[in-house]
């Protein structure tokens, strides 16, 4: 190993490879280590390996960006490429032209039906790229419903704050379905009771979107039951175990979809 | 973002809607894209192929955005980071060298660096440290780490990180997912800097070992 301790005698710069690989050095240290990197092949190799290991740290935290972001990124790239790319993605995008940001106003439902051609293109892209290290299971098997929704071209994310943290609904009009993501620290419901999700209509009506079982709480994510169509919000209430036909308590959180 | 509680009036019970309460819905696991195909896409992007760029976006955007979201927290800021990352990918795809590492690692490294830099710039600008400080003052670090852990939803991640074990796991999560410097990790966990450094190094080493040691 090329042991260059050029700056602070006594401190081994090699020791900084791991925090560097996690971007956990402050600016001064980073600069110092990068200077060292340019001269130390061993550290470069070490950092490359640590970067591979760090890949595991972001597995499972996928969040579909708003569909509008895709359009913006592709447009910007087309512009940079010389303006010939206006048709890029034309065959697969029909992102809603509305704002990507979930609105906090409670206006009319902005959910739209999209032609079903959108989801399978997204799914197909995922499947093609998913083949390989992850094997033929992803290639041949039907895609997980939550994945299909979250990765739908028109998937949009809506947040609401609860005392326990953020609750998120990822909704896809094309899929006519939604995924509910629970706050990380949501307490278990009191004994004999259960959390139940509801689709709320523009007239204030509620229809059950499923009772959240222990597995759902454990995994923090669930596909809501029933069709998204007609819903302007998703609410969660505490109900007697087994759920209710209609809400029997005030929702502790309501996520407006739009 | 959205307005949370207090909107209970939306929920006036309506007897015309009767739906059976359902059973628990299904769980999710998002399949990460494979490295080889990403590398091919990147090679085509480096040639200026916009179709491949769109495919690359579709393949990796949830992962990129999820990481950005996790580190910067703020949804609007995370969108900007995601957008910047993809523009950087478009401009610099030719700098990706498959002999030096996987495409996924390259993409996530870009993403993480940008997200962390963004958070730190914000902190410097408006002293946004309160986000961390207030949390650290009310929650012991292991709770914070647990919280971070719970966000990692894929079973495989749990397994890989479980294999890492404490205290290394907390150190990795605080550094990578919270975007803390190793100095801050030391402060947060109440250990000397050298110990924090060692935990990060050993934790990554264990993670690397777990990944190359048979899971894949």
UniProtKB/TrEMBL annotation, chain A:
InterPro entries on file: Anti-sigma-K/W_factor, Anti_sigma_zinc_sf, RskA_C, RskA_N
Record's bilayer topology term: Single-pass membrane protein
Name recorded for this polypeptide: Regulator of SigK
Key words, A-Z: Cell membrane, Membrane, Transcription, Transcription regulation, Transmembrane, Transmembrane helix
Superkingdom assignment: Bacteria
Entry keyword Transcription regulation: yes
Compartment(s) of residence: Cell membrane; Membrane
A family per Pfam: RskA_C
Keyword Kinase: no
Residue intervals passing through the bilayer: 119-137
All residue ranges annotated as the Anti-sigma K factor RskA C-terminal domain in the record: 120-251
Domain Anti-sigma-K factor RskA N-terminal: 13-53
Compositionally biased intervals (Acidic residues): 91-101
Primary residence: membrane
Region (Disordered): 81-110
From TrEMBL, chain B:
UniProt KW keywords: DNA-binding, Sigma factor, Transcription, Transcription regulation
RNA polymerase sigma-70 region domain: residues covered: 56-123, 160-209
Ranges for region Disordered: 1-22, 127-147
Gene3D superfamilies reported in the protein's UniProt record: 1.10.1740.10, Winged helix-like DNA-binding domain superfamily/Winged helix DNA-binding domain
Keyword check for tRNA processing: no
Biased composition annotated in UniProt, kind: Polar residues: 135-147
CDD domains: Sigma70_r4
Domain of life: Bacteria
Pfam families: Sigma70_r2, Sigma70_r4
Keyword S-adenosyl-L-methionine: no
UniProt family annotation: Belongs to the sigma-70 factor family. ECF subfamily.
Name of this protein: RNA polymerase sigma factor SigK
Natural source organism: Ornithinimicrobium pekingense
